[in-house]
Hints:
Number of helices: 16
Strand order of the largest sheet: 1-2
Largest sheet: 2 strands, antiparallel
Shape: globular
Radius of gyration: 21 Å
Strand content: under 5%
Structural class: mainly alpha
Low-confidence stretches: 1-5, 7-31
Amino acid sequence: MRREGGFDLVAISLVVALGLSLYAGQMQAAITLTPGSKLLKRHFYKKLNTCANVEPFVRHQVTLWWNREKSITAKLLKLLYADCMVNGCDASILLDGSKTEKKSNKNSGLDGFVLIDKIKKVLEIRCPRAVSCSDILHLAARDAVYLSGGPSYPVYLGRRDGKESKASWVDLPSPAISIEQGIAYFKSKGLDDMDYATLLGAHTMGKTHCANLNDRLYNFKNTGKPDPSMAKSELEKLRKQCPKTLKKGQRDPTVFLTDRNGEQYKFSNNYYSNVVSNKAVLKVDQDLLQSYNTTQLALEYAGMLGHFKQQFALSISRLGGLNLLTGKQGEIRLNCRFTNKNNPYINHHFK
């Protein structure tokens, strides 16, 4: 039995049966947290007696929001990635300004800022000047992942907020990046190919604009033909959603990254099932099959949701330890959109 355009199901079963033993060396590498993570502490605010109930406070707000907007999980994960991969996990992505990271063309479409604002407002009432915006973002993302069916993992805390944000810093790769370039980018940040294959699994939730895949549908590598690696059924479905040319005034449509049985916003391993069946929407996702290591991981995760959940918790924790500000570095912002120096409220009331 063979999935359309994909791998033998027998091959998938063999990989699943072998399980983690095939990748023991790699798993050990990925389990090791990034250097900055060692500066963080579990229950940091409770131990300092500055905000003992920070996690329940955050969880309550995220739950209220998630109950009415399931897409918030994908938005928060994208926000977390955009922050940590550019200048480290310092919440610089949250800062307003004409030339900040938020204004980079590569960050167009980012969302979730209003929920972070809401959480910060609540915490400033409960625990004034105690909890960083960066830690709020990490806690909120974890809780949203759990509500969507993902793992609940410990978030180590103690991050401080950055005082700068520049659009020129943003070096996020495009969805058309090759797997060699993608892995090299991750390694330049202190992550590895296992983190790459695992964190891309966040694409099991959310949407993307047709502009990010139109070349695959109509003119792959300037051939005038579609990407030959895409399953025919997927090609036909996506072409119906993404026209070759837009009508005057028509906005670029969006498509779900994983469109299966109403689970577009559920944390699942459907993403990897699509990859191994050549039904991934984005080239960056389908190209996981272009490397031996990432192919094996895609096969494993497609067959074993539990393994994907376990490794996702580890990889996102490694992401959360990149290039941190701790101790007396940076600051604790009173408003996540402004540094304390540029906060209009502080400047007006605390001259």
